[in-house]
Amino acid sequence: MARFDPRITPARLDLAASHLRGQVEAERFVDGELCEVQDAQAPLRREPAPDAPLDTEALKGERVTVYERNDEGWAWGQLESDGYVGWLPSNALGPLGPPPTHRVTALRTLAFPGPSIKLPPVEALPLGARIAITRMEEPFAVSAGGYIPAQHLAPLDTAETDFVAVARRFLGAPYLWGGKTGLGLDCSGLVQVALTACGIACPRDTYMQESAFGQPVDLSDLRRGDLVFWRGHVGIALDRTSLLHANAFHMEVAIEPLTEAIARGEASGSEISSLRRP
Question: Please, is 198 exposed, middle or buried when counting C-beta atoms within 10 Å of its C-beta (0-12, 13-18, 19+)?
Answer without folding.
Answer: middle
